[in-house]
Design a protein that fits this description.
By secondary structure, this protein is an alpha/beta fold. Strands 1-7-6-5-4-2-3 form a seven-stranded mixed beta sheet, with helices on both faces. A five-stranded mixed beta sheet has the order 8-9-12-11-10. Strand 5, helix 7 and strand 6 form a beta-alpha-beta unit. The chain is globular. The N and C termini lie far apart (about 55 Å). The relative contact order is 0.13.
Length: about 375
């Protein structure tokens, strides 16, 4: 199909999801095979071994590249495996400028694994473009940002950072997990690569791990394809199929996530026991205007301050509709405690430096009836 003129939902449903040519099956089959028969030495039908390539994986990579507007995409066994693959393309002595408020697993990988192999990392508040410009050194090869950040929902102006990076030939990598390609298109704003934990909104059903890197240049694709082959942290055919299935409803789900997210954020902002709400859709968010320019919706991710660890625990013990647990982006509302979950590895000092308190709670608003979500939040907050 002609993807350039097709709308987002049409691309999500049809690109890479064409009916099976052999049987006409509307749902693409799962090619659960480790190897492929060859007709003779050096002659095959495009596939040799499943670590190198697989038809189900190919379909997913085509689909996700089309949604983000990249030239190609490569999928990996998890979001962290995808980030690891990006960093593997660097070499000892290279320097990376990172957002200072990333998902906790990202600096853990950078500082406790890759720093031992000679890579250098600097962490700055990327919401101020000047900080990025000042942090770039002669050996800087990459700027890695999340926007909005996890869990404080701070935004970075992707286009402005891109204008800093491009003349210096520094790649800008954007983790777009929180917004999904439905609400934010980093490549159109100047990003060189986009990464997602497909576990989250792309899959949407909390039933499969995965990660993807969407590329803008063939050289990136070649490097990542080689890493799939050499390192083997690829996504299984079944997981690929789960994401292909999930992506079909991405547009519809994100609309509901956004609509309900706005209502839950407004409720929390008006609640006397909530001390502060972090949500770009609220008019008092310091980057609300940037959110309106850079994103086409505000999404489902909200963080709020309860005041203490004791208050957070009292509330979280009482939730019923909301599910207390790590992760986000599922059809069900997921609620978590960043200090002991997603950002435990950052340490108390690290959390304090970026503003993550023991009383901070993060919610990924699902697509249940929003009245039930609000009612559950109301009764849970009553426990404080």
């Amino acid at each position: 199909m002609k993807t350039k003129k097709a709308g987002f939902a049409t691309r999500a449903i049809h690109v890479g999801q064409e009916p099976d040519q052999l049987t006409g099956a509307v749902a693409p089959p799962i090619f659960a095979t480790s190897t492929f028969v060859q007709q003779e030495i050096g002659k095959h039908k495009g596939y040799e071994y499943a670590r190198v390539s697989n038809p189900t994986r190919d379909r997913l990579e085509q689909n996700l590249a089309a949604l983000e507007g990249g030239v190609a995409a490569k999928v990996f066994a998890s979001g962290m495996a995808a980030i690891n693959a990006i960093v593997t393309t660097l070499k000892a002595g290279d320097h990376v400028v990172c957002g200072h408020n990333l998902y906790g697993g990202t600096p853990r990988l950078f500082n406790q694994v890759w720093a031992d192999f000679g890579l250098e990392f600097s962490y700055v508040d990327t919401s101020e473009v000047r900080n990025v410009e000042r942090a770039i050194q002669k050996n800087t090869r990459m700027v890695f940002i999340e926007t909005p950040t996890n869990p404080l929902m701070a935004l970075t102006d992707i286009q402005a950072v891109s204008r800093v990076c491009r003349p210096k030939k520094v790649d800008l990598v954007v983790d777009n997990t929180f917004m999904s390609p439905y609400f934010q298109q980093p490549i159109a704003l100047g990003a060189d690569m986009v990464v997602h934990s497909t576990t989250k909104f792309l899959n949407g059903h909390s039933d499969g791990l995965g990660g993807v890197v969407v590329c803008t240049r063939p050289v990136q694709v070649e490097k990542l394809a080689f890493l799939q082959k050499a390192a083997g942290a690829i996504l299984s055919p079944f997981e690929c199929w789960l994401i292909l299935r999930g992506v079909k409803t991405l547009a519809a789900r994100m609309k509901q996530h956004d609509e309900s997210g706005r209502q839950v954020a407004a409720f929390l902002a008006g609640h006397k026991k909530v001390k502060k709400v972090f949500y770009p859709g609220l008019a008092d968010h310091p980057q609300h205007d940037l959110a309106k320019r850079q994103m086409s919706g505000f999404g489902a991710m909200i963080s709020f301050e309860t005041g203490s660890l004791s208050n957070a625990n009292k509330m979280l013990r009482r939730v019923k509709v909301c599910s207390l647990g790590e992760s986000l982006g599922g059809v069900e509302t997921l609620i978590s405690h960043p200090a002991t979950m997603t950002h435990a590895a950052v340490g108390e000092k690290g959390r304090k430096a970026i503003g993550i308190t023991d009383g901070l709670v993060r919610i990924s608003v699902g697509i249940e009836d929003v009245g039930d979500i609000v009612e559950d939040m109301e009764q849970a907050l009553a426990g404080i």
